[in-house]
Request: fold
Amino acid sequence: MGGQRKGSRARRRQRGRTGVDDITGLSAQDRMKIRMQNKAKNKTADKYSIHQLLAKTEEYLDNFNFEMAQLFCQRALELEPDNLEILDMMGNICMELGSAGKAKEVFLKAVHLSPDKGHAKYMSLGQIHCKEEAVQYFQKGLEVMISAYQSQPPVSGAASFSAEPEVTAQDISAAFCSVAEIYLTDLCMEEGAGEKCKEAISKALEYDGSSPEALQLMASYLFSMEQPQEGKEYLMKSLASWLPSLQKNKGEVQKAEEEDLVESTLPPYESRITTGKLLIEAEDFELATEVLEGLLEEDDEVIQVWYLLGWVCYLQAKESAEEEEAFKDSARTYLRKAKKLYSKLQCDDSALLEHVEQILADLGGEEAAERDSDTENAPLENIEDDFVQSSEDEAMEA
Reply:
């Protein structure tokens, strides 16, 4: 149905938007199709009000049915093409569907209609773009956010439960983190990138000193500046803000509200992968293993997590003569899984695969190589059983 509507709109554009269906030259079947489409459209217009269309859009969004949400949101947008709320909703739906070009078009229209109000469109445009363009959109979004934050009345007492502020200090902190991440990655080679990165992180911490994301970004920055001790201090502060809650939730049955609270304070999955990397760099192998194993429980098909667990076991084998063989066995198991997932998911990170193979070769010896080869030829689903068995054997030997 959506494709038919899109086709109808294209034909109307070709007719110059006269409002008259010029069906001359079309076959009887095509003429009937156009009449049926117009009739269906008129029925839809009569059936749903703008509020009902938005309610249906929200309903489908709640069920993660973005295709149907887009259909109803598009109809609402046709009725009110300059409605900023609908434009924002449509832009976000397009991003969920991976239609970055369409999302950009929608958000830019919202910018044209309301350049100085509503920061969300700028933050979304920042996500769509990269490097300097992304920074420009984030900075404009920050300008709008800070202006709104400073002009809104202070929230205190009973009012805090009845009136949710448009912008919070946490929102502004997160936006500064987005800027810092670009200078830490895409623009890291640009002149002055280090100073701009640190400035953005400092601003993020100024607005929210307990932000796990900002604390971890400061840790990443300090590690990159070869200040590992100072970096680890910030990293441990970041971990202290979310890891104890995760450990508690893992160790006992929690109420649904407590589980929601843990999820709301938990950094994103990718951010916690970075936590694991930094802990390895700080040589805190036990804590790195705990974080990475927690990620594995959430999603066991992320190649990087298996690779990092293999890497940390490999490093531990070098430090512990007593448990060297046990750590080597665990490293092989994790790294074999990483290789299997690499093939299964058709990954293109050649540097990661090369490092995995280097470590496996270093763990080697002919007997180990043969064992690795046998396991690599085994079905993918059996690898978990191999690891469980390996872990049980280690426990018995200990």
